[in-house]
Amino acid sequence: MTTTTNDTTTATESTALAPSYDDETREPGFLADTWNVMTRELRPMLREPASVLFAMVQPLVFLALFAPLLPDSSAFGGSALQWFVPGIIAMTALMGASMTGSNLTLEINTGSHERLLVSPLRRSSLLVGRALKEVVPMLAQAVLIVAVVTPFSFDLHLGGVLVGLAVLALFSVGIGSLSFALAIVSEGQDWLFWTVQQTLIFPLLLLAGVLLPLDGAPGWLRFLANLNPLGYIIEAERALFAGSWSFDTILQGAVAAAAVAAVGLVVGLRTMRRSS
Amino acid sequence: MTQTRHTAKTGPVIRTSGLTKTFTRHKQTVEAVKGLDLEVGDGELVAFLGPNGAGKSTTLRMLTTLIAPTSGTAEVAGFDVVTEQRAVRRSIGYVGQGNAAGHQQRGRDEVVSQARAHGLSRSAANARADELLAAFDLSEHAGRPVSTLSGGQRRRLDVAIGLVHQPRLMFLDEPSTGLDPQNRVNLQEQVQRLNRELGTTIVLTTHYLEEADAIADRVIVIDHGEVIADDTATRLKAGLGDLVSLGFAGADDAAQAAERARRLDGSTVEVSGSAVSVRVAHGRDLAPGLVTDLAGAGTPATRIEVVSATLDDVFLNLTGRSLRETDSTITPTEGAAA
Fold this sequence. Notes:
The complex is a heterodimer. Chain A is an all-alpha fold. Helix content of chain A is about 75%, strand content about 0%. Chain A has one domain. Chain B is elongated.
């Protein structure tokens, strides 16, 4: 304790603890706060590029193993890939966004979430920033998938794809917020978060006709499917990816995505406010 | 620089009135904090001392806007903790029970991110991060994932993150729990230096008696959601006096000696077999006289020990329970109760 090294530490510390410059601080706005939260969330990924690589390849593996099984028949109204790719991208978006809360669970348990709550960051930015974090890899995955399938029986309609991804981004923010709320309600209990997430995600995917068309489904199944917002979104994605600007289908998808986003944000903010 | 900080604001930095928090869990209502009236002045170093579940962390969580009071009011740095939350958050530094830095993050990234959240420009945030990391001897470790840092390094990082905006008021919730003794002492020194050199008001909670005793100017003892004592550690202990323990050749000698010891003004005497314990103010000074007196009376002491009162004795005296007997591990529910 009385060594010289310790004394040097002491000396530097005194200077650093004292304000050493007159810095004009400016109160960050909502966008700056959200950007701060989002980039903070993305940073560990960027620092470990290997993890990004694996995440990127996953949907491709899925596509490679599943697409050959699809009959190139009229059941899909033409190319199976054309039908299947929008669904895979939507699935990627749902999977990614629904995991938003798992990282939060870790941060609730280790304490950094609490630190963020006591910081001046806006509550809404904590929510939206985290949800947006999942949009970035989703977009990258989508670009990769589209790039890989375009040489095959997939016609690229760039305008449609871009609008489609914007709709999915909106959907992702909603799902991400709901996942965030789930993590808070789970109070850091990992198993609870994952149980609920897994229980919800597969019915959502199946009832949206991601893997198989629902055209031949019995009435009760189609009734349930009609209640699933993801179904409308996927219909819109398929139209957009096929370059068909069928207004009604796209509008329904966009409205469904906006509704999920709105519900997600309201639920997320309310959950955060109530818990703290 | 420190001058302006002192004169910038006078009067209490914290003022609470009837501050109350009740939790309802499993249909049971628990009053975690009961009508707390408290004032903390600028530049004080205050420790909330009490067993787990006493309400000290709940109090801290209300003062730092993490949970809303059930009733009563609290002003922190001149702002209401309910209606002016963001202003409170901008004004305070906070070191929670957990780690401020995300475990999968790099330490330096977290300091910069926190500085940006407090409105520092990109270049100022970077400069501040470098300063703080150097000050807390973390420069070489700041590029590593936080999960790979040692407990002591992580705690220093927590404090560094809490200081990015040079707050005049710093809250620390169980800061030294889980640290080894050397890191604990280091942390305590840093906290004291912050208080002495910059005049930063410090409020910390602890269930370590030694910690409260060693560093705090003012100790607020909390039990069952209420303040049961509030004074300097020295005065709290002085009120109890010292404990003089004496050993004798046999139980008879001890009984006779106890009789003589009871003549000491204000003494409390207990006999247990051949041992006698005397609690009396200024026992340290009275002990030699007592030993001589007993030898003269034919009941010489065979063993003597004088122990000053500890804060545990203070707690025992106030509550009938020892703080040491209470569970010294952090219960996860205390944090989750928010």
